[in-house]
Design brief:
Strand content: 5-15%
Structural class: alpha/beta
CATH architecture of the domain at 17-112: Alpha-Beta Complex
CATH topology of the domain at 17-112: Conserved hypothetical protein from pyrococcus furiosus pfu- 392566-001, ParB domain
CATH class of the domain at 17-112: Alpha Beta
Strand order of the largest sheet: 1-2-6-4-5-3
Number of strands: 8
Radius of gyration: 33 Å
Shape: elongated
Number of helices: 12
Order of helices and strands: HEEEHEEHEHHHHHHHHEEH
Largest sheet: 6 strands, mixed
Helix content: 40-55%
């Protein structure tokens, strides 16, 4: 995979700092020269993926290439697994496991560890992030799970993955996108940058339409931002025009109601609109006698 992203620090190494040499691949149990952790060889049929691991998408071509390498050199770095009784669950290394199966291996080197559910989730997330294996949506969902399932704060999550709190927040904002657009990000049709500029579009249909335009026209992020801004300005103008037309229509209606009330009370009546649901009515009088007359009329109306 690509080189490690900057800013991740020692997150992965502190959780599983194994550096395995090729001698460990000969089978049996041997101690890692630096960590003194035993490396076991298990039947590959006893090893199963973690259904809750953050990564859901795997590059089949990349796995095929890794399988070719494994046929020649074996599995250089053992998997991290946890004993689940009848099988061993992968904590880190599912891509290597998939490639090893494709390469036809019957056994695979592993390091067996005991983790809590939270630790297992963190290890899997950090490994995938450091190896750039997660797409933006998978990464965002993993952060959300750490927050909701393990009741962590964003600062805690950021520390565990050696990223800034802002980076974690921005990542999770992608989950505001509709499912169709999220899938386009997962499929690689939209980049992280494209996705971020689409978050500001609240209308689902418009969001999908713009996403399709970006993908079909292969727009850059800057071009996508300009398109979104242009559409939002048009939408704003349309909304303002619609509201203005609505206000004008209501003004005519209120004027007609005011004229009807004027005929009833025999004096000037004004209706002042605050919004489409609220306002106030003013009934004018010009003497004490006129006020008494208006009050008598109101009393008669309320008694009827």
């Amino acid at each position: 995979m690509a080189a490690k992203k900057g800013g991740l620090g020692r997150g992965l190494d502190t959780l599983f700092p194994d550096k395995v040499n090729t001698e460990q691949l000969n089978g049996g149990i041997k101690a890692d020269s630096e960590t003194k952790e035993p490396v076991s060889t298990l039947k590959i049929s006893l090893v199963e993926p973690n259904r809750e691991q953050p990564r859901k998408q795997f590059d089949e071509e990349g796995i095929a290439e890794l399988a070719d390498s494994i046929r020649q050199h074996g599995v250089i770095q053992p998997l991290i697994v946890q004993n689940k009784g009848s099988y061993y669950e992968i904590v880190a290394g599912e891509r290597r496991w998939r490639a090893a199966r494709e390469a036809g291996l019957k056994e695979i080197p592993v390091i067996i560890r005991d983790y809590t559910d939270q630790e297992r989730m963190e290890v899997s997330l950090i490994e995938n992030i450091q190896r750039e294996d997660l797409n933006p949506i998978e990464e965002a969902k993993a952060y959300k799970r750490l927050l909701e399932e393990f009741h962590l704060k964003q600062d805690d999550v950021a520390k565990r993955v050696s990223k800034s709190r802002t980076a974690v927040t921005n990542s999770m904002r992608l989950l505001k996108l509709c499912e169709e657009v999220q899938q386009m990000v997962i499929d690689g049709k939209l980049t992280n940058g494209h996705a971020r500029c689409l978050i500001t579009i609240d209308d689902t249909e418009l969001q999908i339409s713009v996403a399709l335009q970006i993908a079909e026209k292969k727009l850059s992020v800057r071009e996508a931002e300009k398109l979104v801004k242009k559409l939002q300005n048009q939408q704003k103008k349309t909304k303002q025009k619609t509201e203005q037309e609505k206000d004008e229509a209501l003004a005519v209606i209120y004027e007609q109601i005011a004229d009807q009330m004027k005929q009833v009370f025999g004096t000037k009546v004004s209706i002042h609109q605050k919004n489409s649901d609220a306002g106030k009515i003013e009934i004018e009088y010009y003497s004490q006698d006129e006020l008494d007359r208006i009050l008598q009329m109101v009393q008669r109306i309320t008694q009827e």
